[in-house]
Sequence to fold (287 residues):
Amino acid sequence: MNRSFDNSLYNRRKLTNAVGLTLAALSMVLGLAGLLWILWTLAVNGLPALLSADFFTKSTPAPGSEGGGMANAIVGSLMIVGFATLVSTPIGILAGIYLSEFGKTSRFAQVTRFVVDIMLSAPSIVVGLFVFAIAVATVKHFSGWAGSLALSLIAIPVVVRTTENMLALVPGSLREAAFALGAPRWKVSLSVTLRAVRGGVVTGVLLAVARMIGETAPLLFTALNNQFFSTDMSRPMANLPVVIYNFAMSPYEDWQRLAWGGAALIALVVLTINIVARVLFRSKAQA
Fold:
């Protein structure tokens, strides 16, 4: 009687396990199929534009004209994202160090974590509207600096959360050993614990950069666009997400071709950054 009950229970659990594994495998296959379909579509439509030298050397064309490229948008995106990275990286890392090493239980740290969680889940268009109200409407013109500010507000919570989580993985014995040698707390935080998880922190920074590259809504309200080549961050500046958005909805085939090329370029850059981040994190974890 007991053996029969045990066999039926075992068979039921075995069946449940098989159903769960099958559903998980199907979900993985569907996800990979959708990803490969997107990448294939981008490759088929975008690679012809990327293989042209004009794409990287010429600025965006005027409406109805042929030729042109994305040089101004590429340079604009590099400058906007670059300055946003320079702002968000030190702020995010230092804030993560404070939350993990100095303010674990303080009320200020709890409020900071709450605000970080809100910023992580906030739609990017809300961030764009906020920066528009404080940095665009007040000065009466769009600018690349406003775009960098909006993107940095998106990246900071990602870096903060990654840094705090990585530092939480450092064993307490490592800190105690450093304290026993007479090292001050700030020195332990910067030279011992942060050094121990630098691979994970760099991974968080790279993932934040990957997220900033493809953001369109914040730049629509801040940097806007510029048809001409410009490196003046105090004026409207061309950038890949906004140019792709405008060109993809246009009736001109040449603009649509450039939009596909820009989309393929962003996808390639984001894919490369994610691969580099995962390889870097894995190598540091194995070391």
